[in-house]
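Q: Convert this sequence to structure tokens.
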Amino acid sequence: MSDPLLSSLKIAASGLEAQSTRMRIVSENIANAQTTGTTPGSDPYQRKMVSFQSELDRLSGAQMVSVERVDRDDSPFIIESDPGNPAANADGYVKMPNVRMLVEMADMREANRSYEANIQVVKQAREIINMTIDLLRS
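A:
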């Protein structure tokens, strides 16, 4: 039988790691929201998405979360008229990344809130462990 407090710490740590990866990917998307191809007609930056999976920690019996994979978003690129751009095709159109800032900001906010929730779990477990140690001392 495993310690429930230790299990809760492991679960929260797996959540922190997964959400940290998610925030990094969203940050990459935001940073490359205007990154076009380098040659005329070439494809621009393609948005990335994180997929999570649940996995069983056999030692503790707890369900952990991890990043299963990072995929590319297959939604169509945005086409803009910009004849002066080096990535413009013969008609003056440039393929822009399929990154939508509103979606990325919402995803970042959700990842941040999930990260903060996992931090609160760690804080609460630490507080309970400290209270237990104090009770054992007295």
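The mean pLDDT is 93.
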